[in-house]
Amino acid sequence: MSDDRPPRPSDIARAALEAARAASASRPAPTRRRVAGPRRRWTGPGPGEDDPQPLARLVDSLVSTQDWSEQTRVGAVFGRWSAIVGQDIAAHCRPETLTEGELLVVAESTAWATQLRLLAPTILAKLRASVGGDVVTRLRVVGPTAPSWKKGPRSVRGRGPRDTYG
Known about the structure:
single chain; 7 helices; elongated; alpha+beta; three-stranded mixed sheet; 11% strand
């Protein structure tokens, strides 16, 4: 037989496979690459630091590390006002400002302002139990304010506006 005949496809595939095997054998063995960062250890059956945490626990740890506890307690007075004092009272008044332990509460009418002044010790006790004793120490209740005729930064003392046309 003569070698003039064309190579068969199986002979071409066999030659390519042998060449690939030879090239693979001449390469060095691959090494395991280490991922950058600290080496992780298995923490065992208990919860670990890198396990998923409830959001409330993460927020609490952030508040304590940033020393935001005082601001969050002040915010709780305003944010949870209706839950602290009850829906009935919260429907007729709202907290306005909290400065140096004094909470200013604005009532919708003078009757509600009088009622809230009588309930002030009870409201203070609820605030101490819910938020903490040192956040709100005094409660000042005011009624609705009358409309003011005063416009602008300057005013003149006296009776105010009156009929000057006759």
